[in-house]
Amino acid sequence: MTALLRTAGVTKAFGGVQALRECTVEVAEGSIAGLIGPNGSGKTTLFNIITGYERVDRGEVWLGGRPITNHPPDRVFAAGIGRTFQLTRVFSRLTVMENMIVAAQHAERGHGWLRNPLARAGGPATRRRAGELLEFTGIAGHAGALAETLSYGQRKLLELSYVLMADPAIVLLDEPAGGVNPTLITTIADRIRQLNEQGTTFLIVEHNMDFVMGLCHQVTVLDYGTAVVTGPPGVIRTDPRVLDAYLGTAEDGDEAP
């Protein structure tokens, strides 16, 4: 399958800490891809580089065959990459529907956040599209509520709805199941599958292995900032390089813990 998103030899250091080392990752168009690894392996740093929140020291990022290396976040968003965050970023003092209107304005302009997000209220078409997405993610009943009143899982669904207003080619999800109750985890997974069936590509960072292995078509494992192995979940589960990355190498004939 054709790679929709590709990082090639991406390297990034923060002072004396090497966060990424010649990291090459490919996400096939139309797939659900997972990105896993121990804490500190570089997963979020790679997300930040792809989406323009960090600059690479060396290497390249490509989307649909076009370079987007070091493009600022607004240009990356306009190019077709949506992204959620480990800690949700929604406008807490705006209603759910107002958040969706901001998303529509952001997508249309492609020039970063508006100083006055509600300066131009969304028209009927925008509100209709927002309502459809909120219905799809299961939070339409909260459209008039302030975002701060939502549960953490509902905020994650709002953030996903927000991103989808731009009709992105690929969505990067950072810990979508983190801190979410099992019922909402199932809802999030179901929505991802449905969106994927409709043509949206996903790259997911997640520590919940059941979530990743049950959802993703392929999984890439990062260790010390390098992609050490990529393959389908069944292969990843038993690959010795994955066990080594998570558990450490056994020494002196002892079994790893």
Record field, number of beta strands: 10
Question: Low-confidence parts, pLDDT < 50 over ≥5 residues?
Answer: 110-121, 249-257
Proportion of helical residues: 25-40%
Instruction: Using the coordinates shown, work out and report the CATH topology of the largest domain.
Output: Rossmann fold
Mean pLDDT: 86
- Terminal CA distance reads 38 Å
Name of the CATH architecture of the largest domain:
3-Layer(aba) Sandwich
Tally of individual helices: 9
Percent of sequence in beta strands: 15-25%
Largest sheet: 6 strands, mixed
Number of structural domains = 2
Q: What top-tier CATH class of the largest domain fits best?
A: Alpha Beta
- Spell the H/E element sequence: EEEHEEHEHHHEHEHEEHH
* Overall shape: globular
Read across the widest sheet, the strand sequence of neighbours is 6-7-8-3-9-10
The H-level CATH homologous superfamily of the largest domain, spelled out, is: P-loop containing nucleotide triphosphate hydrolases
Summing up helix and strand content along with how strands pair, one would put the structural category as alpha/beta
Radius of gyration: 19 Å
Any overview of this molecule?
With 257 residues, the chain is of the alpha/beta class. It folds into two domains: 1-80 and 168-257, 3-Layer(aba) Sandwich (Rossmann fold), CATH 3.40.50.300; 87-167, no CATH class. The chain is built from nine helices and ten strands. It has helices spanning 43-50, 73-79, 96-109, 124-137, 152-164, 182-197, 209-215, 233-236, 240-247; strands spanning 3-14, 17-28, 32-36, 58-63, 66-67, 81-83, 170-174, 201-205, 218-223, 226-231. It has a six-stranded mixed sheet, sandwiched between helices. It has a four-stranded antiparallel sheet with strand order 2-1-4-5, with helices on one face. The longest helix is centred in the last third of the chain and has 16 residues, at 182-197. The N and C termini lie far apart (38 Å). Mean pLDDT is 86; it is low at 110-121 and 249-257.
